[in-house]
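Q: Structure tokens for this one, please.
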Amino acid sequence: MKVCLLSKMYPPVVGGSGMYAYEIANGLAEIGHEVDVFTQSTGDDRTLDVHDNVSVYSLAKARRYLVTFETLYFSARARFAVDFDEYDVIHGTLMPASTLALSDRLGIDAPIVLTSHSFALNEVFAHSPEKPADYLLKYAFHPMNVVMDNVAARSADRIVAISEEMRGQLVEKYGLDERNVTRISHGVDTERYRPREEVHPAVSEDKLTLLFVGRLISRKGADLAVEALAATDRDDVELLVAGTGRLEDDLKRLVRERGIGDRVQFLGYVPDEDLPLLYASADATLFTSNYEGFGLVFLESLASGTPVIGTSAGGIPDIVENGEAGYVCAGDPEAFAERIEELAEQPERLMAMSQAAREEVDGRDWADVAARVEEVYESVTR
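A: Here is the predicted structure, written as tokens:
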């Protein structure tokens, strides 16, 4: 098939939806399809290898402010710049609503598939206003996304939900026909993310090392990771925070207030090439989000042989059986602290969970995801 893939986010931009577009494009190309990716330019000259059957085109320059208007502009550019008649199937991201361009079926005959990466209605409730920009997101941009998502969704032939939680929400809260919503979870590069003998220099080999990876924004819940560490009251446990964001100063202040500055390291932005070793060197990853579409962090951690202690957000309940490759627990410091202390006191359990973590990702690579997406294409083009 000739596939049109619309995605506002695409590497070198970091994030789950961008990596999904990159991996799906390459996976479909490997199967034999021809894929044209339409995205935005970032001004970053870093490049990633793409398959010979993949072509990447920029429709606009990315602007990380006023993101909802960026979505509208990208959608308008796509509508007027892309000849959709050339394609057998059109595949775009739904949430955020970068496929509003497809909301009017007039003049578009090809089947439309949308992947839902996040649920805009949940973004409204999950976002805690702490900075002036947060109020704009919570009370203006996210509600606008809810409207745009609904408009785009009702023009799709099929929607791919990346977690069971999201599939249920699309059906129950947006009133979509469940027969048109298919769950296909994210994959992970098991060659890139794998157990390693080498140890990252930030990791103390004589301590239980906990890792948080993500943007330092309210819904990622890095403060929960800090509070959980403080609740353990153990000197043999440390926390590494890998990420930046507008709440970084607040988190550092919280660390000082809890008196755990000697047990927390803020690593700042960790380059992509350094993440695999960091994951593999940690003893456990804390997944503290109060909302996620899926959460690639926990899957990358499992592939690295590192168990996860996480909330029930996103795709964790679909993949992590409690007590096997990790723990799924309530989103409060005491619940996390209890599990942290269990791992600190029972190294044999930690070793068993590390083995189970790697086994859990077997059969969850991106080639498998691409094959399932291909099945969706075939079902809508018959």
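A few notes: The chain has two domains: 2-187+365-381, 208-360. The two ends are 12 Å apart (CA to CA).
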